[in-house]
Specification:
With 125 residues, this protein is α/β, with parallel strands linked by helices. Helices cover 17% and strands 22% of the residues. The protein contains 3 helices and 6 strands; from the N terminus they run βββαβαββα. The strands form 2 sheets. It has a 3-stranded antiparallel sheet with strand order 2-1-3, with no helix packed on it. It has a 3-stranded parallel sheet with strand order 4-5-6. The longest helix has 10 residues. It is elongated, with a radius of gyration of 18 Å. The relative contact order is 0.14.
C-alpha cells in the first residue's frame, strides 16, 4: 500500500515494474530515467497520492471476516476508511494500540501496546 523505499518506478506510470534502487543520490540530476524517458522516483506513496494496489485492497476487505488495525491515528484517508468498508461487509474490526484513533467508533478497542498483545493474539496451526 505504501510501497518500498529501496525500489524506484517511472514517474510517468508507463507500466514497467519497479526496480531495486539502493543508491543515495546527491542531486536530482543523478537520478536515472526509465526507457520511456520519465524520471525514476521512489516507489512509495506520498501524501495526496492514491495508495498502491487499491483494487486488491478493496477485494481483500470485501472477503475479510476480521480486520486487526495496529497503532494508527485513523485520520489518513483512504486507509482510515478501511474499517468502515470492512464493517459494511460484516467483518469484525479490532484496534490494538495505546491511544484511540480518530475512527475509534468503528473499532473494538484494546488499549495496550502492540508488542504485548500481538504475540498471543493468533494461534497458528
Amino acid at each position: 500500500m505504501h510501497g518500498e523505499l529501496a525500489k524506484a518506478h517511472c514517474e510517468n506510470d508507463c507500466g514497467r515494474p519497479p526496480v531495486e534502487d539502493h543508491v543515495l543520490y546527491r542531486s536530482l540530476d543523478e537520478v536515472g530515467h526509465c526507457v520511456c524517458g520519465g524520471r525514476m522516483r521512489p516507489h512509495i506513496v506520498f501524501f495526496g497520492e492514491i495508495p498502491l494496489e487499491m483494487d486488491r485492497i478493496e477485494r481483500e476487505i470485501e472477503q475479510a471476516t476480521l480486520m486487526v488495525v495496529v497503532g494508527t491515528s485513523g485520520s489518513v484517508y483512504p486507509a482510515a476508511n478501511f474499517v468502515h468498508w470492512a464493517r459494511m461487509n460484516g467483518a469484525r474490526t479490532v484496534y490494538v494500540g495505546p491511544e484511540a484513533p480518530l475512527n475509534a467508533s468503528r473499532l473494538q478497542r484494546c488499549r495496550r501496546q502492540a508488542g504485548e498483545v500481538l504475540p498471543g493474539l493468533f494461534q497458528v496451526e
